Amino acid sequence: MALDARPKGPRKLHTFYNSQSLSDCVVKFSNRRVFAHKLVLVQNSVWFDKALLGGFKEAGEFVINLGDDDDPNDVEAMLKYFYHGSYTTPLITSPGQDNLGKHLAMYLLADMYDAPALRKEATTLLIACLKTSIVGPGKAIEDPAITSIKQILGPGAGDFADKTLQEEVYQLIIANIARLYKNQLFEQLLISGKMFNQNFGMKFAYKTGEILGRFYS
């Protein structure tokens, strides 16, 4: 009697990651290729939904080329997230990145490809990292935290599709403004006008003026 090689239960979604089994497209980025499934991509990303079901040229193609502008390790981590359904630091393998940098890179990709679940998880982990770096007496705020804040609220931050992260980071700054002023990099960037974009710069100036007004009244 022949052995039954079929699995004893339904296969888990993560086992299909980069597998030719049932694959109906290939995602190409930098010098990498990942066998993917259109259904999984459109379920997780509005960008892929529009690209594959809308009028984009990718709709009728087997190979979806994402280009080489983004770190391939981050792009692969995003694709793995679509299949694994969990977001953990080991998925992100870009050398030299700290945790803040890793979570921010994932957030930016999630925002670019409009991947709501990944964006929400990256936001949660990024805010948690910032709170660890900023909140709490007796601990100096390290420069990577200031650099990450600048990337989120600074002049070069760009126009985020979802503003939740920016608003949460801004509120975190206001709640810890006295401690931030003790960081030399924060002070330098603030004086040079490179800490905030115009919108958050005006909000910050108004709020600090309000705080000083209460202090001297």
A few lines on this structure:
By secondary structure, this protein is mainly alpha-helical. The chain is built from 10 helices and 3 strands; from the N terminus they run E-E-H-H-E-H-H-H-H-H-H-H-H. Helix 1 (38-44) packs across helix 2.
Question: Secondary-structure map with pairings?
Answer:
Elements: E1 25-29, E2 32-36, H1 38-44, H2 46-53, E3 63-65, H3 72-84, H4 99-112, H5 116-134, H6 143-153, H7 164-175, H8 177-180, H9 184-192, H10 198-216
Parallel strand pairs: 1-3
Antiparallel strand pairs: 1-2
Description of the structure:
Helix content is about 55%, strand content about 5%. It has ten helices and three strands; from the N terminus they run ββααβαααααααα. It folds into two domains: about 15-85, 2-Layer Sandwich (Potassium Channel Kv1.1, Chain A); about 100-215. It has helices at about 40-45, 45-55, 70-85, 100-110, 115-135, 145-155, 165-175, 175-180, 185-190, 200-215; strands at about 25-30, 30-35, 65. The radius of gyration is 21 Å and the shape is elongated. The longest helix has 19 residues, at about 115-135. The termini are far apart.
